[in-house]
Amino acid sequence: MNEVVLKADNLQTYIGHHHILQGLSFEAQADAVTVLIGRNGAGKSTTLKTLIGLLPPSEGTIVFNGMSIQGKRPYEIARMGIGYVPEDMGIFADLTVEENFKVAKLKEDEATAGRLARILDLFGALGKFWHSPAGNLSGGQKQMLAIGRAIVNDISLLLIDEPSKGLAPIIIEALIEAINLIKEECVVVLVEQNFYMASAVGDYFHILDDGRIVHSGRMEALVDDEELKSRYLGISKSKS
Ligand SMILES: Nc1ncnc2c1ncn2[C@@H]1O[C@H](COP(=O)(O)OP(=O)(O)OP(=O)(O)O)[C@@H](O)[C@H]1O
């Protein structure tokens, strides 16, 4: 049995008066990519925002590496070793790629410089456009910058919200390769609608529906489960 790095239990999250997460519970294991999937509006992005402290839950617990993190501020949670790549990527379009990294870096030490060098090896375009405004990057390059910025610090958990959104298949292949390398360094919790990408990187899956987890298991089991894919993900056999 693998070590549990993140355990969310009975999360209840409201946005205004809307009760979005309704008792959501799941775990993420060490050395694995856990994928959250489900229909539009199921509560996937809300789950990541709840975990990182942007939407504090009204009830429930979140334990990360044995520490309770619910109720902490996002910057406190980030400093405990959780990286977050939001759906809109959150990069600073007017700043250069270099400046985007400067804003993100928590330390200017040797270990951070080593991680940055590895990120530039992984995502060659970032080095090429190092002095260009990040707003000029292509969609795929922006996603690489957003992910690179999140892993430049010493994190043990990376939360990524729908990285494949709007990207061409060839760029999705590069992202799959990158996430499979990143998972060697830290635990990944990924929200992903693209089932090809979800199944190419995921070790475990959780299906969300109406703010709850309705099915969980190993990704291989979901790949073979036509009924579940059709019911919750709208994937029919001919399309998969
Ligand atoms: N700022 C907001 N104000 C009101 N309702 C919101 C807000 N943000 C999200 N919601 C609602 O919360 C529910 C869950 O949204 P969320 O973005 O978490 O879903 P999702 O599963 O990530 O969907 P998608 O795949 O479309 O991104 C939806 O019904 C959405 O309309």
Task: Jot down its keywords.
Rossmann fold, globular, alpha/beta, ABC transporter related, four-stranded antiparallel beta sheet, 27% strand, binds adenosine-5'-triphosphate, 37% helix, transport, 240 residues, six-stranded mixed beta sheet
Structure write-up:
- The chain is built from ten helices and ten strands.
- The strands form two sheets. Strands 6-7-8-3-9-10 form a six-stranded mixed beta sheet, with helices on both faces.
- The protein has helices at 44-52, 74-79, 97-104, 110-122, 124-128, 139-151, 169-182, 195-201, 219-223, 226-233; strands at residues 4-15, 18-29, 33-38, 59-64, 67-68, 82-85, 157-161, 187-191, 204-209, 212-218.
- By secondary structure, it is of the alpha/beta class.
- It is 37% helix and 27% strand.
- It is globular.
- The two termini are 31 Å apart.
- Strand 9 and strand 10 form a beta hairpin.
- It has a single domain (4-233), classed as Rossmann fold (3-Layer(aba) Sandwich).
- The structure holds adenosine-5'-triphosphate.
- Adenosine-5'-triphosphate (ATP) binds at residues 15-16, 18, 20, 38, 40-46, 193.
- Adenosine-5'-triphosphate (ATP) is lined by residues 15-16, 18, 20, 38, 40-46, 193.
